[in-house]
Amino acid sequence: MLALRLLNVVAPAYFLCISLVTFVLQIFLFLPSMREDPEATPLFSPALLHGALFLFLSTNALGNYVLVIQNSPDDLNTCQGTPARRASCPPPSTHFCRVCARVALRHDHHCFFTGNCIGSRNMRNFILFCLYTSLACLYSMVAGVAYISAVLSISFAHPLAFLTLLPTSISQFFAGAVLGSEMFVILMLYLWFAIGLACAGFCCHQLLLILRGQTRHQLRKGVAVRARPWRKNLQEVFGKRWLLGLLVPMFNVGGESSKQWDK
After folding, report:
1. How far apart are CA 226 and CA 212, in angstroms?
2. Does pLDDT of 159 surpass 80?
3. Which tens digit of pLDDT belongs to each residue from 96-109?
4. Do the Cβ atoms of 236 and 106 come closer than 8 Å?
5. Which is nearest to 162 in space by CA: 135, 189, 137?
6. Which one from 79, 89, 111, 117 is the annotated catalytic residue?
7. Which residue, 6, 60, 94, 110, is the most exposed by fewest CB within 10 angstroms?
8. Is the four-CA dihedral 40, 42, 47, 51 of positive or negative sign?
9. Cβ atoms 150, 33 nearer than 8 A
10. Residues 110 and 118 sit within 8 Å (Cβ to Cβ)
11. Is 137 a catalytic residue?
């Protein structure tokens, strides 16, 4: 339990550090290198377009990250006790989280990177957090590849060029041909690639479970769920005005996630 509590503190700090490093590299390294294009018009310059897109992705990722933390699943600890209290509480999938020390409604899993349980109230924000984190990391990787290609005069036309970049750069770094800052960017490329793929895979997995009306806790325990239309399952998580929540980080966009769920 002590190890889980420690991980619950270290993982959010790790995510925030990666976010800060990504922001610094984008603002002070990638954007200045794009301003050197003399043929670009001021309105549609690569630096302006790149900065606007990265700001959109990072704002949605961090905004939904904050909302995941703020909107914890409903605490059903008050349901413990007399039969009258238990009768007044929602009966669907609940689970006691040892890390959070509470009973959560529609418990899906505990996310150590947010230090919070994922359940009925913050599932939509968690999925959007994974989506925009994946897009921000993969986009940062593309911008980093363009920067390294220009600085080191490396062509990534061959499919294996990215795979062989790390071992080649390590040997050149110890030979003095690659600077420390350039080596750091190369290491970040692989980190962005790994985080982007991991978040994308996790996001797709969560969406498949939502389409089935099932949580990861139910899947792990082998709990059977009632067959329901997939549109209704999506609407209960994302709400009727899902497009607004997709573009701007916000908590409630007309969803029904706080209502009673069926098993």
Report:
1. 9
2. no
3. 788 887 777 778 88
4. no
5. 189
6. 111
7. 6
8. negative
9. yes
10. yes
11. no
